[in-house]
């Protein structure tokens, strides 16, 4: 089972469908809009983190990156466009094979 945590964005239904079509069994989404999001932990079952840089601030981005590194979870940063997401997620999966 491959799960993906998407941080940022408001409505990602279409994006989640595309990600599931490309092999992710579960797509977990957090908007990152609330200030207390910085204090939340990354779920243990996450295999990859995708940060949508158009929708979060630098502080949250730094915290997510640090937490991902502590848990050895791959992380990628992309704009919300599908081409950007596909390119960045593809880099992670190519490097793992």
Name of the CATH first level: Alpha Beta
Q: Give the number of helices.
A: 3
Total number of beta strands: 4
Instruction: Provide the number of structural domains.
Output: 1
Which structural category do the helix and sheet elements fall into? Answer: alpha/beta
CATH homologous superfamily - what is it?
BRCT domain
Explain briefly what this protein structure is.
The protein is of the alpha/beta class. The protein has helices at 13-21, 58-70, 82-96, and strands at residues 3-7, 26-30, 48-52, 75-78. It has one domain (3-96): Rossmann fold (3-Layer(aba) Sandwich).
Layout of helices and strands:
Layout lengths: L2 E5 L5 H9 L4 E5 L17 E5 L5 H13 L4 E4 L3 H15 L1
Parallel strand pairs: 1-2, 1-3, 3-4
């Amino acid at each position: 089972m491959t799960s993906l945590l998407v941080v940022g964005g408001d409505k990602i239904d279409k994006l989640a469908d595309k990600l599931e079509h490309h092999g992710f069994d579960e797509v977990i989404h957090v908007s990152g809009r609330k200030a207390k999001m910085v204090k939340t932990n990354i779920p243990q079952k996450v295999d990859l983190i995708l940060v949508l840089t158009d929708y979060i601030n630098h502080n949250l981005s730094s915290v997510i990156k640090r937490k991902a590194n502590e848990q050895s979870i791959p992380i990628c940063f992309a704009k919300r466009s599908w081409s950007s997401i596909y390119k960045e997620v593809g880099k992670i999966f190519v490097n793992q094979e």
